[in-house]
């Protein structure tokens, strides 16, 4: 109590409240919790003044991590963010993290989200989407739940080459449902199609694949989508949005749903901070789509306006029978995604994708030529690829970190037997010098 | 063809071994403009008073319960594309599903039209 700070109660008020309920001290309130379960110490430093804290944050901002050149991907990517994104998204009219609770009063917010939905549909080649979800992993899980609802079946097939974090979220979401998740282990670093076709049957609700895969491989899942359709199952393709500037969209592959994480679209890495997820589907599935949907309409004078639509799917109306417990969205992050896409435009976006591809190809040719290093992803890749090193990948990552390079993600953590494999990511932000330096340092480390 | 009513405002019209199910004029008045009807898949079985399908109106979603136990043999696909016909003609063109009736004796627990009208009169 030496520094009350923002504590709302005075010691007198606390004593008064304790007297009324007949307890001697605050500690007595926790008496029912066994002592071994009580917090002993939060190990927090002493309080600071505003200016001490600011100086501390500036120290942090200027510290070593900024000097490290990242070649890390695995779901979070270091992309450019045009200044216009911060500028527009910072406007007070827009600065909300949710769809408003009296939505139609906020026509500007609704229009922005409507435009966002349009952008996501164009990006994925799908017909309809919602106003965004929490992140890519939860969007994937919501898509799986949709497939289960639509088909009335109980089995989900998921490719082992789907991001392991997303698969973990999927398992958490489905853990307490009578649902079977069949994980199809990849054959090397590619989708094991034979196994998929063998397991896919008329009991299957949904098939989940990712493009590019967690290993970086680019594929066309049109054959899988067609086979799933013949069995009455739905195909969910998880995508890395930036890649869609160059690659076939889920819509073009005949998928029923496209999901992904929107961080790459104008949202900073922020140590893993807020992102948004998208889930876009064919129009026939709109009634089963969770979350908020913004629609266009006219008011009684015939003027264009925006509303939240089809709300009977949602839990404030349908209660326990709602499509999902999702009752809001990631407005601000989705707005940043929209501004990012709009600022780049169709051509700029394609150019961005192309830069990622070209730079990664360059890095792939240098790294793949190092003695003892081979490419695991032999076919087409986008801006990520998997290398097999002659030594343990985690050791290499650690040594390169000391040289100021975050060399990326060792695969042994998720894939047994791949301890010497590394997924390397090269975004448009990496320069030729940085790539050359990575190759030179990597050669030193693996050949020493 | 005999018609029976439930306290939840569904009707069932007996047609040989099957029953045609819909909602009553009172129900559509209460619901307002119907925007969507979520029909069951043919083959679905429901026991008496179990949820059969759902109807969405402008501001609400309501479950429709099976007046008698049975298996869905046919659905009125027209209400999917033109849900307004449920408002316009709830007891005729706006029918919802046809059930293969499991136990015809169950209609004894339902109301006749006269009883239903009397029941409506007693509602607040």
The overall pLDDT average of chain B reads 94
Largest sheet entry of chain A = 7 strands, mixed
Q: What would you give as the CATH superfamily of chain B?
A: RNA polymerase II/Efflux pump adaptor protein, barrel-sandwich hybrid domain
Most strands sheet of chain B? 6 strands, antiparallel
Mean pLDDT, all residues of chain A: 92
- Strand neighbour order, sheet with most strands of chain A: 2-8-7-6-5-3-4
Query: What number of structural domains do the residues of chain B give?
Result: 1
The H-and-E topology of chain A, N to C, reads as HHHEHHEHEHEHEHEHEEEEHHEEHEEEH
Which spans of chain B of ≥5 residues are poorly predicted at pLDDT below 50? none
Task: List the total number of helices of chain B.
Answer: 4
Low-confidence stretches of chain A: none
Summarize the structure.
With 448 residues, chain A is of the alpha/beta class.
Describe the protein's architecture and organization.
The complex is a heterodimer of chains A (448) and B (124). With 448 residues, chain A is an alpha/beta fold. Chain A folds into 2 domains: 65-79 and 350-447, Alpha-Beta Complex (Aspartate Aminotransferase, domain 1); 83-340, Aspartate Aminotransferase, domain 2 (3-Layer(aba) Sandwich), CATH 3.40.640. In chain A, 37% of the residues lie in helices and 15% in strands. Chain A has a 7-stranded mixed beta sheet, sandwiched between helices. In chain A, strands 11-12-15-14 form a 4-stranded antiparallel beta sheet, with helices on one face. With 124 residues, chain B is an alpha+beta fold. Helix content of chain B is 20%, strand content 37%. Chain B contains 4 helices and 9 strands; from the N terminus they run E-E-E-H-E-E-E-E-E-H-H-E-H. The chains are: A alpha/beta (448), B alpha+beta (124).
């Amino acid at each position: 109590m030496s520094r009350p700070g923002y504590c709302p109660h005075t010691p007198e008020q606390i004593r008064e409240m304790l007297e009324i309920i007949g307890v001697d001290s605050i500690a007595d309130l926790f008496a029912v919790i066994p002592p071994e379960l009580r917090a002993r110490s939060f190990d927090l430093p002493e309080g600071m003044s505003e200016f001490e804290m600011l100086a501390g944050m500036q120290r942090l901002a200027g510290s070593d991590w900024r000097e490290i050149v990242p070649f890390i991907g695995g779901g979070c990517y270091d992309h450019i963010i045009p200044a216009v994104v911060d500028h527009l998204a910072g406007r007070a009219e827009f600065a909300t993290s949710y769809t408003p609770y009296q939505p139609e009063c906020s026509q500007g917010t609704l229009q922005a989200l409507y435009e966002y939905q349009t952008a996501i549909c164009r990006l994925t080649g799908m017909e309809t989407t919602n106003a965004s979800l929490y992140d890519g992993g939860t969007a994937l899980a919501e898509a799986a739940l949709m497939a289960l609802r639509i088909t009335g079946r109980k089995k989900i097939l998921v490719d082992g080459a789907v991001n392991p974090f997303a698969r973990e979220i999927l398992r958490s979401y489905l853990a307490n449902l009578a649902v079977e998740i069949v994980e199809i282990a990849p054959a090397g670093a590619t989708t094991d199609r034979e196994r998929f076709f063998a397991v896919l049957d008329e009991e299957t609700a949904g098939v989940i694949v990712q493009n590019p895969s967690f290993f970086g491989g680019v594929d066309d899942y049109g054959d899988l989508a067609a086979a799933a359709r013949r069995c009455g199952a739905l195909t969910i393709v998880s995508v890395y949005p930036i890649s869609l500037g160059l690659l076939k969209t889920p819509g073009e592959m005949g998928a029923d749903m496209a999901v992904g994480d929107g961080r790459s679209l104008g949202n900073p890495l922020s140590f893993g901070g807020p992102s948004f997820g998208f889930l876009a589907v064919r129009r026939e599935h709109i009634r089963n789509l969770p979350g908020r949907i913004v629609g266009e309409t006219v008011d009684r004078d015939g003027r264009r306006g925006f509303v939240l639509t089809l709300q009977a799917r949602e839990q404030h109306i349908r209660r326990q029978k709602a499509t999902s417990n999702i009752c809001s969205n990631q407005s601000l992050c989705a707005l940043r995604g929209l501004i990012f896409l709009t600022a780049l435009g169709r051509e700029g976006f394609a150019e961005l994708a192309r830069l990622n591809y070209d730079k990664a190809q360059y890095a792939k040719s240098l790294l793949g030529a190092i003695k003892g290093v081979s490419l695991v992803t032999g076919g087409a890749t986008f801006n990520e690829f998997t290398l097999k090193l002659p030594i343990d990948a985690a050791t290499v990552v650690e040594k390169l970190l000391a040289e100021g390079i975050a060399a990326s993600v060792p695969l042994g953590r998720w894939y047994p037997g791949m301890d010497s494999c590394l997924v390397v990511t090269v975004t448009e932000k990496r320069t030729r010098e940085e790539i050359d330096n990575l190759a030179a340092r990597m050669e030193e480390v693996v050949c020493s | 063809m005999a018609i029976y009513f439930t306290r939840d405002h569904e009707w069932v019209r007996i047609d040989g071994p099957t029953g045609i199910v819909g909602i009553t004029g009172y129900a559509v008045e209460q619901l307002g403009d119907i925007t969507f009807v979520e029909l069951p898949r043919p083959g679905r079985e429901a026991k008496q008073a179990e949820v059969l399908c759902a109807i969405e109106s402008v501001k609400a979603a309501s479950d429709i319960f099976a007046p008698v136990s049975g298996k869905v043999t046919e659905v009125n696909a027209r209400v999917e594309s033109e849900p307004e016909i449920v408002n316009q003609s709830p007891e005729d063109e706006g029918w919802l599903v046809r059930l293969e009736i499991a136990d015809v004796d169950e209609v004894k627990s339902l109301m006749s039209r006269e009883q239903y009208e009397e029941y409506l009169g007693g509602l607040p």
